[in-house]
Design brief:
This protein is of the alpha+beta class. The protein is 17% helix and 26% strand. The strands form eight sheets. The protein has an eight-stranded antiparallel beta sheet with strand order 23-22-21-34-33-32-31-30, with helices on one face. A six-stranded antiparallel beta sheet has the order 24-25-26-27-28-29, covered by helices on one side. Strands 2-9-8-4-5 form a five-stranded mixed beta sheet, with no helix packed on it. This is SUSD2 protein.
Length: 749
Amino acid sequence: AQDSCSEHCGELLSTCSCQVTCQSLGNCCPDYEEFCLQISPYSGSLMGGKAFLLENTAFNTSSVLTCRFKQTIETRGYIAKDGKAHCISPLLYETGFIPFKVSVDDGLSFPYSGTWLSVHHSKVSDEEKCTLVNETKWQYYGTPNTYGNLTLTWTHQALAETQVNIEVWGYHETGDSYSENWSAEWKYLYTLAREIPNTGKLTFTPVPAEGNYSTWDFGILRITPSSFSDGQSNIPSLWSNEHALAWHLGKDFRNDPSAWATAKCMEWDRKEEKLPNFKEEIIDCPCTLAQARADTGRFHTDYGCDIEKGSVCTYHPGAVHCVRAIQASPQYAAGQQCCYDSRGTQILTHDSTGGSTPDRGHDWGSPPFMKPPRIPGFSHWLYDVISFYYCCLWSDNCQFYMKRRPSSDCRTYRPPRAASAFGDPHFFTFDGLNFTFNGLGEYMLVESDLTSLRVQGRTQQGRLPSGTGAQGTGLSAVAMQENNSDVIEVRYSEDLNLEVLLNQKVLNFSEQTWMDLKGLFLYSTLDQNITVMFSSGSGVEIRGNGGFLSLTVLLPEKFMNHTQGLFGVMNGNTEDEYTFRNKTTMPIHASPQQLFEFGANWAVENGSSLFTYDTEFLLNSFYYGEKHNASFLPVFFPYEDPADPLVGEMVSLCDSDPFCRFDVLTTRSLQVGNSTRLSHQNHRLLVEHLEPVISCGWLDPPINGTKNGTNYLLGSTISFTCNQGYELTGSKERTCQASGAWSGDTPSC
């Protein structure tokens, strides 16, 4: 009898497979598609309430459907008239892939399984939410000149019901900060409008909420079908954006918003005084915009101020771009933000209200989530955003906020080191050496004993325009893992599409381009630049380029003396770059033939491969075969034939770039040559942008005087003047010196 995938998804059974690779290998159990669920849509907000379809299943309409997430959270599913089954996503306090199981016998057995992607509430498309029309008005309602009607709109087709209720929910955290009993809760407060027609629009004049509800100042709206009871959890819902609930605050707020907010700001300031100082453990900012945009393993664009989207920086006037530290700080899960002006220099809160402010709660949350201060989005709102409303937006006390959230400068920032491989593979090591290695097989590009980081590359033979194999190879797949993180592989499929695999399963970026995974974050741009950001701060960037992959690995300074592989030993010394597995080295002026031996020595050892072998071709070529194909010999010195018409075109394209020339000659393709030229240029620029920059740190103006200048990097000069009637002693000008110290003496007036 054939085995069944019922309760066995992800396993290899004796007669057939229930693993994700079974479809491309053609060895699935007959009921694989029925029990190992594909769902649509595959993602939604962590707030829950979204219906998703279970594909390839047909149940009779009388079945009672139960969906169980993470072994513990159950939601009631439903079966539509066409027999198609749907689950409702639950309210979660975490992001990432969440396993779920489905029962059709009222919870007796759960034979069906799948995964749901829970995402940060602000990463969900606007169509999935109800919209606070003129959101600023909702959040400033009751402050001077802000009153009248408010309007809420929604996509009425999203809820299949003629009447809906609109509810107000509040978020709070209870227990003692940074203790075991600290916990987070979304709580139903009251119903704002009941059994109203589902037209997609509601306009109302807000009145202060009754009783205790008016003390809740941070929350969200939820629209549900009227057939459910008030505040019922995990039912079909449309949530609004989370927001400051100015519009429902009590009479004391409306009578004197500024005094109310000032009192709240002072209370927040007193609380902050007692909390641990998270600023000591967050990473310092990059010194320049170029560094910030190059350090992609540790910093990512802040959506609220993005140079590529026109620099609309509402909260940071004067900035053109901000970045956030990707990883939360180790102990307190705090976040860092860094903003830059049009000259590319950092803007500090000491000098300008447009400066960047660090966060007690990282906006994106941090693993293992579930408890404060690690709740995605909402912990951050409670400590860093609503307090900004109290002190800076609803009252004029911003100096209190800035005192608790001052910008970090860049005195302790150390840029990462970069290594790259591209084209007919040319390797640039962390210490700046370059060589060409044209082996055919699977190789260890870099491994580190510091975090068990492994990045492996697979090469395949290039193709000549005629279709025959070229005498050179290029990267066709890269796989990576750190400690016990998820395994990510980026590869060209056989029809030359770029695919990203998560633990052997091909990912789909149609709904989400950013994913919070185990031990890493993954980001894909629209033109398929893939960035993997590991929790150690190491980053891997992969781009598809003219049929070959180009790859860059960025490692922070702590990896010094902890790397080996084709990218060499990262220690600032090129002499030991070509170190073999047995720790012997080869001189740096080795011939291409000798380097071929060095490369072959770093072939992936069987059993330690991170690659997915899900086709006959991959199994035969790389799994059963040799990891380094010793019978493939590349061309080491391509010949430039003056009579060859391609040579003239090559010279005008490549100029003096030796890698571009090499690749045009070995692949006979100007397109491959051009991709190589651009990748080489990108690598050079990246290394240039990651050069260390010396900063002498912020200087304050003298009391009763002013200073001129806000650039604190090497060579910058700051000048000081005194107010009328005061005389200056000390230095009139101070210059940032190579030692990292300012010249001269502290001025006073």
